[in-house]
Amino acid sequence: MSQKTERIAIEGMHCANCSALIQKMVGRMEGVQECSVNFAANNGTVTYDSDATSISQVIQTIVDLGYGATVIPKENRAAFDQERRAKEAAQHKHDLRLFVMSLALTCVIMIVSMTPLGMNLTMPLATAVYGADHTHEQMMLVMNVVCLVLTIPIQFVAGLRFYRGAWGALKARAANMDTLVAVGTTIAFAYSLYVTLSPTTAGTMAPFETSAMLITFVQLGKMLEARAKGRAGEAVEELMSLAPKIAHVHRAGEVVDLPADDLRVGDVVDVRPGEKIPVDGVVVQGSSSVDESMLTGEPMPQEKSTGDEVTGATINGNGTLGVRATRVGAESTLSRIVEMVEQAQGSRPQIQQLADRIAAVFVPAILTLGLVTFVGWILYAAGNGGIDGASFERALMAGVSVIVVACPCALGLATPTAVMVGTGRGAEQGILIKDGDALQEAGKIRRVVFDKTGTLTQGMPMVVGVAYGDEASEEDVIRFAAALEKGSEHPLARAILMYASEHDVEVPAGMVTDFEAKAGKGVVGRVDGELFGFGNERLVRDLTGAGLPAWCTEFASEGMGAHATTMYLVFASFGVAGAIAAADQAKQSAAEGVRQLREMGCEVYLLTGDAKGSARHVARQVGVEETNVMAEVLPGQKAERVAELIDVEHERLVAMVGDGINDTPALATADVGIAMSAGSDAALEVGQIVLMHDDVRDVAKAIALSKATMRKIHQNFAWALGYNLLLVPLAAFGILPPELSSACMALSSVSVVTNSLLLRRAKI
Ligand code: ADP
Ligand code: MG
To answer: Among all ligands shown, which has an atom nearest to the Cα of 518?
Structure first.
């Protein structure tokens, strides 16, 4: 079985029922494992078994339901998006034209049917048809026919999309917002037609303005909604626009300007002063300072010269750089960030399921309620002097009004728009919230567990001291330690290797065999067949079965050593030969970040594999209480320690903030896993929230953002439901006429989307 995941752009969704419908029908297809459709973002993600079905079958299913669907390509996204935006713009234009037509016609209908001017205007027509001595009935018939002719384009041209949508839903035995609009307006139209044609109602004005105004208002609402939806998705567009479009590429000895999308791995590009770097790559020529703030948040430009890595979309300073492309297209850093943001924006928090469930029963319930209203009014009329034309019309209009005012579009927009704006807002600030549940839960975090190295500290330890026993020299200790660390990617390894090169200690290649990294302990290997290692006290115990000699304990507890991580060079045969202490600085943001969390009422913990001494030192620096320090924890146990903090009722949630591979189990165990982006890919993968700027203060920001977003979602629900609760009775009792209902409905969607957009200004 081969599993594939594709993203699909979907056109023509009108409401949350549309997305729910597509999700249901595609989800039912054989071979489809998962399908999630986002109404607010106009796209969906499908995971399927490519042996059992194909993406074209999935597309066909969506098209059969009456929507447009295209696979979003992984390469050349810029071109695709441009095309998609052009299509959307054309659609907006088309909608606008239809709306203007409807509006103009509706105005004429209202003038004809409701003002004295109407009589004057139609009089010549009546005279032409029936002669100067036409009756009042004949005059009315002429006016009604004029209105009928004016209403037809609104009902069946502008209103076609509602019929189409309703038909698509009906085929799938579902009902949606289009169903309500189609049913409501058709009833109103059919009734007007009846009034016009039936001899029993001769001499009465047919209420064509009802369905005309209804459709016009719904169109207006949809247009405003589409515009607002577009704005909710701007974060991704802004990110994409960071990438330069053109690259100066060396091809066959010449420099040519090509679209940046056409670059291949290995291409060398020129980056001139002030230009954006078009690809991820390595500097092969020149040197310059590069502004990487859009990715790292670091305001100081970084010096780059031959051999240094650079990232696409960062801005070159004053020098000219030659850059060899190492990652292009979908692999590039920027594409991966965009993907993460899109994933975040499309994700559905649990609360959305509640909305979906409500929406599913909503439409049938409202249709029933409309019917009940109609029957109620008829019964009332029957009991109060019998049913006549006027009372029948009143009953019908009340029923239509109920159906129209209760449209669930605001309900459907409540969650996705807030999620889009909230996650977009986060992305702008370097906080990527990858899944909807994390967005929902982060606000409930009450305990935050920090990994030390690379999370609270800079992760750039520096060697601060070397000690050695009788059998070795300082140079030997450094050489053997460095030889082992060549195989490790731990920040401590970097410190040792840097120290070795600074002190010109030669480390012969191939000196160590059988290299192995011992997580949470250190590294081991063999030299001339003899087992030796470099790591902490645990490793010493593992290799020799004994504890530390006195001189080591002394070194580790004195002077700089007391604040540093001490590692020991140990041989299985004769014990510890030397010790190296490396100290890591707390991040500048750490103390402030911890303080903010505590101010929010969070308990803060420190969890590290490092020794107690250096753990406590960092804890003091950043303001974590000593009782909350958990040191010398092996990687495998980190998850257990986090699990112990988790509250069974799931009310006071636990977040784990980490960066390393050794943190991944703990990140996965915590209620919310937060990864620092400078960390390992594994941590980025597992973390539900990624902090792009590696700033400790962003943990508090993420929590605040979650709270603000959830508050918006709840407000939106209150709006959408409260609105119905208030207006449905008004409509049912005939106080709210259908045309006002449709205006109110448009207003409710727009107010929900606008409320979500306010999140962009929320202080976090
Ligand atoms: P943290 O929990 O702070 O991220 P780790 O679990 O990665 O730390 O490591 C815990 C301890 O194990 C370190 O403090 C160090 O003493 C030892 N250690 C791990 N990797 C290495 C290495 N490559 N070289 C030396 N010591 C190491
Ligand atoms: Mg770490």
So the answer is: 1
Residue 619 Cα to ligand 1 middle (Å) = 17
Residue 412 has pLDDT above 90, yes or no: no
Binding site membership of 492 for ligand 1 (Cβ less than 6 Å)? yes
Catalytic residue among 178, 435, 451, 584: 451
Runs of H (alpha helix) within 647-687: 664-669, 681-686
Summarize the confidence of residues 252-268 as an average pLDDT. 88
Give 456-524 as a DSSP string.
IB-S--EEEEEEE-TT--HHHHHHHHHHHHTT--SHHHHHHHHHHHHTT----TT--EEEEEETTTEEE
Give the containing element (helix H, strand E) for 534.
strand 530-535
- Residues 646-654, mean pLDDT to the nearest whole number: 83
181-201: pLDDT as tens digits = 899 899 989 989 988 998 888
Ligand 1 proximity of 500 Cβ (cutoff 6 Å):
no
Q: How far is the CA of 43 from the centre of ligand 2 (A)?
A: 37
The answer, yes or no, to whether any atom of ligand 1 lies below 6 A from the CB of 609, is: yes
Distance between Cα 459 and ligand 2 center (Å):
7
Which DSSP letter does residue 277 get? P
H helical segments located in 646-764: 664-669, 681-686, 697-732, 738-757
Give the pLDDT score at 99: 94
Residues 6+ apart with CB under 8 A from 300: none
Q: Ligand 1 center to residue 521 CA distance, Å?
A: 6
Ligand 1 close to Cβ of residue 488 (< 6 A): yes
What pLDDT is attached to residue 743?
80
Q: What is the pLDDT of residue 663?
A: 86
At residue 1, the pLDDT reads 66
Q: Is the CB of 535 under 6 A from ligand 1?
A: yes
Lowest-confidence pick of 333-337, 652-656, 670-674, 700-704: 333-337
* Residue 584 per-residue DSSP state: -
Reported as a pLDDT band with limits 50, 70 and 90, residue 504 is very high
Write down the number of H helices and E strands in the chain.
Answer: 26, 26
State the chain's mean pLDDT as an integer: 88
**DSSP secondary-structure letter at 72?**
P
> Which residue from 694, 77, 81 is spatially nearest to 332, judged by alpha carbons?
77
Handedness of CA 28, 32, 36, 41 (dihedral sign): negative
Count CA within 13 A, CB hemisphere, residue 747.
Answer: 10
3-class SS at 114?
A: helix
Report the C-alpha gap between 497 and 503 in whole angstroms.
10
Among 405, 399, 362, smallest CA distance to 726 is for 405
